[in-house]
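Need residues for this backbone.
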């Protein structure tokens, strides 16, 4: 039983840590669209300009989209089949845990001592209390929209939701953005079941 507990704890920790870094993906599409007709793309500037993120992060996202689209055989074009747009949402997630416990030194005061029933001096001991422990993290959503350029209709939308690492390390930030884009675009093109 002890060996089982020693095995289960690291596995649970690994699952918890991996779930903190994952991107949850949702996608939706127009089922009447023939996605095999799309071969070229360009960015929908109006939509990109409205995205409420820094210009540097926009560049990172667009570079990651370029990489993913190229891996699917798409080519950038002045007369594209698809227009690509992005937008973002962000929210602060607050978690409250009621499980903190501690110990520490006491101060000076009156107490019971050996030889002198009431003595003045330092005290020590342990104590605990249960109170709230609050943590916050930023959860963000990145939407990638694919719009048919001929009729200007949305044909596919992917959304990635996950925690954003508020890091000053540019390499880690860029890697996280690539992860978001890659996970979202794994759902494109949609696997349409034939009847």
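Answer:
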């Amino acid at each position: 039983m002890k060996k089982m507990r020693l095995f289960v704890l690291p596995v649970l920790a690994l699952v918890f840590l991996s779930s903190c870094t994952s991107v949850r993906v949702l996608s939706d599409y127009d089922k009447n669209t023939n996605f095999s007709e799309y071969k070229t793309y360009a960015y929908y500037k109006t939509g990109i300009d409205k995205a409420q993120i820094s210009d540097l992060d926009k560049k990172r996202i667009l570079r990651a989209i370029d990489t993913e689209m190229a891996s699917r055989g798409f080519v950038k074009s002045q007369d594209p089949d698809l227009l690509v747009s992005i937008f973002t949402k962000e929210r602060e997630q607050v978690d409250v845990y009621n499980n903190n416990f501690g110990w520490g030194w006491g101060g000076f005061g009156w107490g019971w001592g050996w030889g002198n029933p009431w003595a003045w001096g330092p005290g020590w001991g342990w104590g605990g209390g249960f109170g709230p422990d609050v943590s916050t993290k930023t959860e963000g959503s990145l939407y990638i929209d694919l719009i048919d350029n001929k009729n200007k209709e949305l044909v596919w939308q992917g959304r990635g939701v996950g925690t954003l690492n508020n890091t000053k390390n540019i390499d880690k930030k860029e890697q996280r953005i690539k992860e978001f884009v890659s996970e979202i675009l794994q759902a494109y093109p949609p696997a349409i079941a034939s009847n």
